Amino acid sequence: MAYIASIGFFDGVHLGHLSLVQQLQAKAQTLDQDTMLITFTHHPLTQIQGHSPQLLLTHDERLARLETLGIDRIIELDFPSVYRLTAKAFMNLLHEQYQVDALLMGYDHHFGSDRLCEIEDYQAAGQQVGVQVYLAQQADAGAISSTLIRHRLREGNIADANRFLGYAYTLTGTVVHGQHIGTSIGFPTANLAIPAAKLIPQAGVYAAKVNQRKALVNIGHNPTFGEHQPLSVEVHIPDFCGDLYGQTLSVELLRYLRADQHYPTPQDLINQIHRDIKQL
User: How far apart are CA 165 and CA 156, in angstroms?
Assistant: First the structure.
């Protein structure tokens, strides 16, 4: 069994990644080979810089999305065990251990401790170990990167982030007890405990969807009720009655409605929430 592979961390599994996968599948048909994606258990920057960026997808979310793409085989490598390898040595490992005979590189991707720059250098190194190297084209949508999407989310630009992802950015967490502020003003909320590695977007109020039901999400510090409130992700589902504590909710963020802000009185906040709900 021979494979053509592409390498990446694939955080977000966004439209740029999907373009690479489509090109990988097309090239595999031409070469009569199976497809493989090679990814890593942890973000490479954890090893290189000592810390990882906040992630668009948790480990399990990322693998689940990759597994929907119709790839024949997905391999996770331990980055610390391979990051000191030269490009040639890494390709030799892929060839010898995983039957990789061809490699499709992303248009802006680089690997190997020897820091090769040009595709011709990778092709020459690959040829020495029996790996044909090809260069993918940039996605039709332009230069899309996980870093760009993180910037958009931190700005609260959920529209651009969702457009680049190709799906609605989703926060998944366990419903835990909060300060019950929403309940006290007539808008009960599910307070989500989000995994620490997951990027939480810009504070504010978002139109969202939970299991096909319209929802309002507040990300922020509840400034109307005092300074130094902890950051929370609270989900209000209009007309929902029930106990969600301990359950896992996935919330799709659709539109940014307004900033997280202080209101002079709780009644002013209540009036604003009524206006927010009308925008769902």
Answer: 15
